[in-house]
Target: Ornithine cyclodeaminase family protein
Amino acid sequence: MTLVSAADVAATTSVRDAIDALEAALRGGLDPERDAPRSRLTTAAGELLIMPSTLGAFAGVKLLSSTPENPARGLPLIQGAYLLFEGEDQRPAAVVDGIALTNLRTPATSALAVRHLTPDTATGPARLTVFGTGPQARAHVAAMAAVREIAEVTLVGRSPRRVDALAVEVAAAGLPVRTAAPGDPDAVAHADIVCCCTSATTPLFDGALVKDDAVVVAMGSHFPDARETDDALVARAAVVVESRASTLREAGDIVMPVAAGVLTPDRLVTLADVVTSRAHLPVQGPRLFKGTGMPWQDLVVAAEIFCRITGR
Model:
């Protein structure tokens, strides 16, 4: 059995590799609607999350702990491992660092959505705004740069110290960067891409500010009573989701507008249908991708990592 560290993941599998693997899986017929639901167990310190999936010769499960008090201790909110099985005998093939896998597959899924949700009329470099200052915010900057040329990155966060630290990293990667305070309308009004990478439970901005040709990614929440975007955006936008079932079970950005009568489930378009051209989005209006993270994404990217490490 192969033990795959975070360093191994970084050395072998780029975010572009992960994006392409996810796209190939969807084009190859993978149906996210058939994926097993995420299981949760409440613990004294937070939650345990169990995420199994299967595809072809591979099967696997991610086991994660989510500990809300960890960031204040200087520790990751999410920790865990992925166990990959292979072949007809379902032998254990690899154990993959769970943080590294999550920090790769999540932005890769978002970037795959942006690759396909970007309007055909979009020309020139994109202005990117990222809400959040944690690992997902950092990874989403790199992932967006893998699918769009970036003119400027605007970082928005509650902690000026953390925003400034992330700005230094983004600048070191060669991207023009500026910072904005929460509530600054220009951060959203001028953006071509908005990525919400936070643990917020209430909307981060006024959806009326979003440009008609902008793409918004909301990936920070997988609880039905938490959201990063508001009804104003949902009412205007073409709404794309990973799967209808998981979204209506877990995604507060969608569950709450549906409960309020702002959105009907028949308006939801799946990412698989967009990627395979079975669905076409309206030409006018912003486009919202809501992701909660699904087990199939972990499996596809873990298998890609394993194949690259073993020279398959």
